[in-house]
Amino acid sequence: MAKSGKELDTQSVVAFTVLKRAVELDSESRYQQAFVCYQEGIDLLMQVLRGTKDDTKKCNLRKQITGYMDRAEILKKYLDQEKEDGKYHEQIKIEENATGFSYESLFQKYLNETVTEVWIQDPYIRQIHQLYNFLRFCEMLIKKPCKVKTIHLLTSLDEGSGKQQQSSGLQEIKESLQNHGVLLELEYSSSIHDREIRFNNGWMIKIGRGLDYFKKPQSRFSLGYCDFDLRPCHETTVDIFHNKHTKKYDG
């Protein structure tokens, strides 16, 4: 069914808002995120073009789409070359109390159907909230288009009163993943300090605070308790790299 003029105007505003964000990210050298926004904005603008009847408007839209497509293609070639050379690096700074950084928002750009294996190195998957964070991360891997078959977790063993809690919690997560056809391989080390996540499609993400960058909710019934895009964050830095030859951690 053909869209009304009002609907097209609304869609046009949305498209240009996304493209404006793409240009901002581009100017900040956040090329991977800019490329994703260019793609989304161009798709939206193409829909507007298909519904537009006025020839002058159609001509203007085509020129604008061509301009954005040319820039997106330049970015794609640059990003592909950076990945090929193993030089790709992007940094995201999460400010204190910032929101909008759920695992889905942070990782979705790097997950696709080629992801079958994931390595997580995080020394602090011990306390209840940290176990829940890891569970949430696993849930995201199951829901996304990736076809994960194996998850490797390297963490440190809680030698204190929380040892049993950590052990039983991770075992329950392992059994639950098994029910979804996913193997969780657990390994413990007393000497790890680095925090990083690797996907077998070449992406590696290093978060200063690991998976534990969310603040405690104000109450059980406050916004952000369930939806982590609404949960305030601790200040941290996220570094994203790409290397075709992603491999397992050295022992």
Write the layout of secondary structure elements.
Layout: H1 5-27, H2 31-51, H3 55-85, E1 89-94, H4 103-107, E2 117-121, H5 128-143, E3 150-155, H6 163-179, E4 183-188, E5 196-199, E6 203-207, E7 236-242
Parallel strand pairs: 2-3, 3-4
Antiparallel strand pairs: 1-7, 2-5, 5-6, 6-7
CA-based gyration radius: 21 Å
Query: How would the global form be characterised?
Result: elongated
Q: Please give the number of β-strands.
A: 7
CATH architecture of the largest domain: 2-Layer Sandwich
Strand order of the largest sheet: 1-7-6-5-2-3-4
Beta-strand fraction estimate? 15-25%
Quaternary organisation? single chain
Which structural class best describes the helix and strand composition? alpha/beta
How many angstroms does the end-to-end distance come to? 59 Å
CATH class of the largest domain: Alpha Beta
Give the proportion of residues in helices. 40-55%
List the total number of helices: 6
**How do the SSEs run, as a string of H and E?**
HHHEHEHEHEEEE
The average pLDDT score comes to 91
Within the CATH hierarchy, at the fold level, what is the topology of the largest domain?
Endonuclease, Chain A
Question: How many distinct folded domains?
Answer: 2
CATH superfamily of the largest domain: MITD, C-terminal phospholipase D-like domain
Main sheet record: 7 strands, mixed
The low-confidence runs, each spanning 5 or more residues with pLDDT under 50, are 246-251
Subcellular location: Endosome membrane; Late endosome membrane; Midbody
Subunit structure: Homodimer. Interacts (via MIT domain) with CHMP1A, CHMP1B, CHMP2A and IST1.
GO molecular function, one term: protein domain specific binding
Protein name: MIT domain-containing protein 1
